[in-house]
Amino acid sequence: MQINFSDTAFMLLATALVFIMTPGLAFFYGGLVGRRNVSAIMMQSFVSLGVTTMLWVTVGYSFCFGSDIGGIIGNPSDFFLLSGIAAGDIYPDLGIPVYLFVAYQLMFAIITPALITGAFANRMTFKAYLTFLVSWQLLVYYPFVHMVWGGGWMAEYGVLDFAGGIVVHTIAGMAALATVFFLGKRRVSEPEPHNIPFVALGTALLWFGWFGFNAGSALAVNEITTLAFINTQIGGAFAGVTWMILEWQLKKKPTLVGFCVGVVAGLATITPAAGFVTPQSAMLIGILAGSIPYAAVAFRQKRNWDDALDVWGVHGIGGTVGILALGLLATKGMNPDGADGLFYGNSSFFVKELVGVLVGIVWAFTVTSGLLWAINKVTPVRVSDADEQAGLDNALHGETAYVGAD
Fold first, then answer.
1. For the chain, what percentages of helix, strand and coil (3-state, to nearest 5) are there?
2. Domain holding 122: CATH number?
3. pTM for this structure?
4. What is the pLDDT of residues 195-225, one digit of tens each?
5. What is the DSSP string of 317-330?
């Protein structure tokens, strides 16, 4: 097969767009935490750019897209250290180089574990985080990429996930909840974001990058690319406005932070369905994304779970809602390679999506809990009271985001 230059150019751009989402996440989270923990949480995102890349080109790509082993994982020897791939190799059934597909999927691997960091803000030691970053990908992220996108059992069963509802958001959100339960509450309260412009900047970078995240998942330039693009904008916008209206009604004032969080919830929720549903369905999904995760955040607050930056409510619940909405609203009229959902007469597809997301929830929560327990046996997972009181920027990294931060 010959290289398709237009598809390749587009996928290079999409890959760069997904890359910029991780620095965007760093700013989004950095603005939400207190002044003494900005560098620490931003570093957790940035370090994934390095560590995850090293892990991915060593064994990650093989585990995800190597030949199938038991429907769960790929053969680690197939592409170890990216061996067996030549510069001129074209990915099967696509017109893009294999190296480009490797790079595009790498950007997903980088941001997925970084999402979890918002849940345990100000509480995890850096050594434990590095151990978690590597082990969580090996035991949670890579298996789900293979099962859903790499020819594993979920793919064979018929589970669809256009750009990462189960594979990214559900498993990250449920892993986040496991870290919240394991680490417990923060001892130093930070009830307000310290830098709202950072939150807005991070949201802008995430929203911008999400067009590469979703539209790029078509892996070509065609009608599905444009469908995913417009649905991404619709989902984020409808959710942001819905969240703002709810906040306005219930808390009497609309806030920029609330709108931004709602947008991110909408983008996470539309992600699995972006290339499979009509724009009208995307409007409905956006409204659901602005209301159900909002209710999940309120529930979390009532239960006094210290998910610092609401990763579970925004990404875990958002991704789950998106997968279930896909099971209801998917239509082959928009994407003949997709499926018809329950509302289009196919109840079996909804059951498949339900099974897929339930497996994701149980696997991610259970394995993450076990990982944290095991890591804690080797090195303390939670920072000391003194370090938490001092702030992790200086205590763990010897630097502060602001001169004279107290």
1. 70, 0, 25
2. 1.10.3430.10
3. 0.97
4. 999 999 999 999 999 999 999 999 999 999 9
5. HHHHHHHHHHHHH-
